[in-house]
Amino acid sequence: MAEEEVSNKQIILKDYVNGFPKESDMIFKTTTVKFKVPEGSNAILVKNLYLSCDPAMRFRMRKTEGSYVDSFVPGSPITGHGVAKVLDSGHPNFKKGDLVWGRSVGWEEYSLITDPETFFKIGCTNVPLSYYTGILGMPGMTAYAGFYEVCSPKEGEFIFISAASGAVGQLVGQFAKLMGCYVVGSAGTKQKIDLLKNKFGFDEAFNYKEEHDLDAALKRYFPKGIDIYFENVGGKMLDAVLLNMRLNGRIAVCGMISQYNLEQFEGIHNLVFLIIKRIRMEGFIVFDYYHLYPKFLDMVLPYIKEGKIDYVEDIVEGLESAPTALVGLFSGRNVGKQVVVVAHE
Amino acid sequence: MAEEEVSNKQIILKDYVNGFPKESDMIFKTTTVKFKVPEGSNAILVKNLYLSCDPAMRFRMRKTEGSYVDSFVPGSPITGHGVAKVLDSGHPNFKKGDLVWGRSVGWEEYSLITDPETFFKIGCTNVPLSYYTGILGMPGMTAYAGFYEVCSPKEGEFIFISAASGAVGQLVGQFAKLMGCYVVGSAGTKQKIDLLKNKFGFDEAFNYKEEHDLDAALKRYFPKGIDIYFENVGGKMLDAVLLNMRLNGRIAVCGMISQYNLEQFEGIHNLVFLIIKRIRMEGFIVFDYYHLYPKFLDMVLPYIKEGKIDYVEDIVEGLESAPTALVGLFSGRNVGKQVVVVAHE
User: Fold this and answer.
1) Looking at chain B, which runs of residues are DSSP E strands?
2) Lower CB count within 10 Å: N or C terminus of chain A?
3) How far is A148 from chain B (nearest CA, A)?
4) pLDDT for B109-161, tens place per residue?
5) Element (H, E) at B192
6) In this predicted model, what pLDDT tens digit does every residue of A130-164 receive, in sequence order?
7) Band of the pLDDT at B1, cuts 50, 70, 90?
8) Cα distance from A273 to chain B (closest Cα, Å)?
9) Chain A residues whose beta carbon lies within 8 Å of the beta carbon of residue B273
10) Cα–Cα distance measured from residue B142 to residue B161, given in angstroms and rounded to the nearest whole number
11) Residue ranges of the alpha helices (H) in B206-310?
12) What pLDDT shows up at residue B70?
């Protein structure tokens, strides 16, 4: 029997990117894909449904060595987290029709996945499938590991979250509220501030773009200081936070999106407060915590079903919308988790 | 009976200090002191023997709020760690003749100490008494707590120590060697480098003043990267270290002496490596670990007696030498722990 080939639209990275990524750094291409996994391979062939746009993908757009992820390959499709349906499987754990999510889905209609063991099979489907790019996927696990495992939070503590309406921040804030903490978030538009206060139940929120003096803003919302800072942005916000940390404070360094497109990272001047206030500042990567995923689902699925946690997604339709969506992350265009729909099923 | 008064030479801080401290920021004064503790007080009157010059005293020379130590009082004697002999006591735990060390000895011949409960009674006296300003005092406990409690060291790990011949660094290096680590130190003179390699048994040492490219120097000594950085200096060295940390590395932030005299701290540009390499960076203060002091003595006294640990002190004679000794810390003039002898007994 001749192997069926079908057309496969892709989004290709043209070359390594300097500065802010632009839509023109990516091009469309239509190629073909065989509709079966190669004989004897343990790969899976999937139809991609939802693609995730994540700030950390910026690292992969430059030539990096020694990072925790490989660079993208210029001339090849962008890859990232996504939700997909198995069309054919050479792997004993997966069968046709399975829904999966994982970290190495191509930005294309169909992907041949050669490391299916890194994928999770989706069990619970009475939630939006796109949630597996967000609250039930990598960003959800990032919020869970970062908050509960890295921040060592205690009831009643004062928590500050930057990029607080983003895919991770909105969850950290809600976890912290459920624990009985005082929670303040920063974001960059009025709409996001409204979300933080009115939808996610943050105690306070402020638009960092409207604050000329971030130190003064933090002092206004944290007259007694900050116990935990969930760091998503870096740069000037981090410097202002360091001035406002409490004794034995913790800073979970999840991301520094303000820095990713700079030729040289901004200087942070106030690290001496790490000593004065005995602060623990810790970088983490969600991949180190994926063994906790079942435990995380046990906690978060009931919260979703009981309406105790909300999740806001910014969903765009069509693979062709993906470059704009990805680029938009770095200007804060997205409101909530940025998702691209390639196909609904 | 009339209360006896004796003359008491003192070293007074003239005013808060900006920039590098100078000898002229301190003045001599001779006053008198009553030779008995006030009736009904639980203070102790001590004769000061050894005074400790510590980089962290720089913080107290400026007007600070919210720090872990109070500012010095302009017009009053400088205070710091020291070894003293009890002349009179209103406190049940201390009696005349006791030797003590603690953190609030005045820079003067005699001090009335109103918080004797913060002092340790010296038990073991078959070591130099000056050791209680160094290896058996605050710097020793700093090295012990910083290395064993903050760094989470493991045999065979790669350790880098800056200001490595100083009061704390020389001990951290020897503790690390005793644990079977690979240890490299940096310092600022040939004499110090020789000490590190030939007396303290560091595997390697380099003079940071002779390295135009600190990143390249670290890559030379750590081709596989650094597991633990014991941070004493801050600034450019920290930035270079961040580029060379290994996965799951730890940075114990003990001090940042290169920054203490600057109007604005230098910017640190490479904190994004905290994420990429999952680094924990933690500031600590020795005062939080003093409950471990008996355990520390149990470990370190045998090491001293068996010759497994050396300790180098830079001892100057006479209270009048104290300002020069203190100021010298910030140009790296001292070789080893800087001590001032006020009286030998």
Assistant:
1) 5-13, 26-34, 44-52, 79-89, 99-106, 110-113, 120-121, 158-161, 182-187, 204-207, 226-231, 245-253, 280-283, 313-317, 337-341
2) N
3) 16
4) 999 999 999 999 999 999 999 999 999 999 999 999 999 999 999 999 999 99
5) helix B190-194
6) 999 999 999 999 999 999 999 999 999 999 999 99
7) very low
8) 8
9) 283
10) 14
11) 214-221, 236-242, 272-276, 293-305
12) 86
Q: Mark yes or no for CB contact A269/B273 under 8 Å.
A: no
State residue A105's pLDDT score. Answer: 95
- Verify whether the Cβ–Cβ distance A256 to B279 is below 8 Å: no
Count of CB atoms within 10 A of residue B162's CB?
Answer: 27
For residue A128, give every residue at least 6 positions away whose Cβ sits within 8 Å of its Cβ, in sequence order, or none: A313
DSSP-derived pairing of the beta strands B158-161 and B226-231: parallel
Q: State the Cα–Cα distance between residues A108 and A99, nearest whole angstrom.
A: 17
Q: Are B11 and B78 in contact (CB under 8 A)?
A: yes
Instruction: Report the alpha-carbon distance of residue A139 to residue A159 in Å, rounded.
Output: 19
One-letter identity of residue A338: Q
Helix and strand tally (H, E) in chain B? 9, 15
Domains of chain A with bracketed CATH: 5-134+312-341 (3.90.180.10), 138-287 (3.40.50.720)
Q: What confidence tens digit (pLDDT) does each residue in A268-292 have?
A: 999 999 999 999 999 999 999 999 9
**Count of C-beta atoms within a 10 Å radius of residue B22:** 10
